[in-house]
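To make the argument concrete, we let one protein speak, a sequence paired with a row of structure tokens, as a model reads it:
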Amino acid sequence: MHKGKRYPSESRITYDEKTGARVRQVTSAPVIHQHPYYYTSAYDGAMRRLAFTSSRTGAPQIFVEDQCTGELIQLTARDDLQSGSLLPSRDGRFIYFSANGAGWRINTETYEEERLVGVDDVASRLHATMAMSGGATGLSGDDRWLALAFGAGTDAAIIVLDTVSREWEVVLQGPIGHCQFCHDDPTVIWYGKSLQDRIWAVNRDGTQNRRLYHRQPDEWVTHESWLNCSREVVFAVWPYGLRAVHVDTLAVRQLTSFNAWHASSNRTGTLMVSDTAYPDIGLQLFDPRDGVGKPTTLCYPAASCLGEHWKGAFPYKHGPIPIYAPAHTHPHPSFSPDGRFVVYTSDREKLVVESQIYEVELPEQYWRMEAKA
């Protein structure tokens, strides 16, 4: 188990039995693999490397697939990495990740690791007790600013770190879940607050903390992401479809009405992809601009999509509940920067013990349209 170890390509091509889509299986070792969270591209901007985690060494490690040679390259050799935390920079220089209660980054050429800021640093500055590891949760479109969420419940905080100077500031304290920079504006961050009061935004300097959406009783608001080129935050009202709220005007509109689960946007905001569950009807493509969002099936990942709580109504009326929903059993689809591919994870119904990374090619009319945008 060492940095820089190279493995031969594991790529193999298949075709979806129902849609005919060309699917490339990226990994094949009989262990758990996981690509970055659905609102994060697995590639750098130039698509030189596809990043993922693999447990083939006995613990989750960051790997990349070199797009020139097809080789799989091991970047980390740790026993404390959070497998779902990896975040490739768009310039390809770094992959950010969380480990040992801190945010880190690793140089993709030299494999040098840098500890950026940890939960102990934040707790010391706030003169508070904070337990729970930190995670790299959002990188601005220019790679300059990194947002990290630390803590749990009311003891949580968002910090913003300058990736050049490595100076950081606490911009917000309180209940905080996921957070993400606006792709088109490095001064705005959306974040998830409580399960009962979910979608908020704050400026990078901590000003203008505001609620974006007033949740109605019994609505299950979840799985937010930015719609590129629109200044809108997309969210699921599970299982009744997706809506979007404008970060400036607070205008809300319906995008689609199928059971979209984790949805992400292409670079130009002209197309979205979403996985589905209960029932699983495959990965769906749709136009988020027309107010209809008629879905077209791209392929069928056949992931087990674990999480019994997703089968019913909003389950958090009285606060958090115990759940069992391993992330690597959810497809979490995301676009490649050129809009030609969608990357997803699937355990192919092997129920937790193994999952692989896949890359499916979009029909030509979709990526040709993206290339012209």
Remarks:
- The chain has a mean pLDDT of 93.
- The first strand starts at residue 6 and ends at 7.
